[in-house]
Amino acid sequence: xxxxxxxxxxxxxxxxxxxxxxxxxxxxxxxxxxxxxxxxxxxxxxxxxxxxxxxxxxxxxxxxxxxxxxxxxxxxxxxxxxxxxxxxxxxxxxxxxxxxxxxxxxxxxxxxxxxxxxxxxxxxxxxxxxxxxxxxxxxxxxxxxxxxxxxxxxxxxxxxxxxxxxxxx
Length: 169
Prior knowledge:
Blueprint: H1 2-38, E1 49-50, E2 56-57, E3 60-66, E4 75-81, E5 86-87, E6 90-92, E7 96-109, E8 115-118, E9 122-125, E10 131-135, E11 141-147, E12 155-157, H2 163-166
Antiparallel strand pairs: 1-3, 2-5, 3-4, 4-11, 6-12, 7-8, 7-9, 7-10, 7-11
InterPro entries: Cupin_2, HNL-like_cupin, RmlC-like_jellyroll, RmlC_Cupin_sf
Domain Cupin type-2: 78-146
Protein name: Cupin type-2 domain-containing protein
């Protein structure tokens, strides 16, 4: 009789501890779900806002996906160029990466021929390299542009790409 009472007490204690364990797991799961729901999500497929005419020719849209003030040391945005639209000549002291996700476009470094870029291409632009990029004559082009080491970067916008320069492809 004593052994059965002791056994029942042990079982009750074990069940109570398991109950607290399950309550604790549920509380942690609820906190994780709450944190996830509060996380700001963005979409790189959104068109964004009209790009500043001072730095672009034609119709260009910019959707800033990741900003340095969000705690990341990069500037990343999806840029959509309508046909014939393009950036001005410019350079980044930290370099730039372009991930072409749609369409066909052009990329050119100063003093070199224009290169055709298209969906799936990754363009790795060295630091301080004067360049431009944009859509081809007949196609829109969309890329994700990333400027790394944003805290050290100095982007310098230069003159527009002339029609004569653009049409050398």
